[in-house]
Every structure is written in C-alpha cells, then in structure tokens.
Amino acid sequence: MSSKSNNSSKRLKKVGGAQRLSHQIDRLCEAVERRSSNNDTCGASIKIAMEHLEAISDLDPMNEIYMFATRLFLNKDKREIFVSITQSRVKLAWLISEKNEQDMANNLIMSRCL
C-alpha cells in the first residue's frame, strides 16, 4: 500500500470516528432535552398541590392539617401522591395519616432525647 492511500485511509477513519462521535453527542443532547421536558410536565407543582388542597371543602385554611400540608408539599414525592389521589375525603384522610406518622416519629425522637 502506498503512503498516499495509507494517509487517505487514516483520514477516512478519523472522519468516520468524528461523525460517529458527533452523532452520539446529538443523541445524548436529545435524551437530556427529552428528560428535562418530561420532568417539567410530570411533577406536580406546589401551586397545583395547593389548588387541590384548597378544593377540599371540609378543610379550613386556618386548620392545623392545612398548615401541615403546606410544609409537606415541599417534598416532591408527597406532593405527587397527594395530587394523584382523586377523592377529596381520601386526600384529607391521607394528610391526617401523614401528620400522625410525623407526630409519632417526632415523639419517638423526643422520648429518646430525654
């Protein structure tokens, strides 16, 4: 093989490798963009959770459970569960259950400190 064809072959390999790398980078960028846009639409915002909370007619905004819920919604997973529950009375029961669970955990911590 002559040195000209050898150099040509090396250039083709470099170009082919660069094209593959460029294609892989493009695919990676597309995947990141898809993932970012999915995260924006999949998660329930605090605003949406608050709208669901305010739609519970039996719940007074001055109530302890209401105030607890506003802090609970800082946790994305809890917020998404709350918004996913379809019935208002079940939402309220779930909030009460979450508060009771947190109260028990706090009491356990306090009793260990004494």
Automatic annotation (TrEMBL):
Protein name per its UniProtKB record: Uncharacterized protein
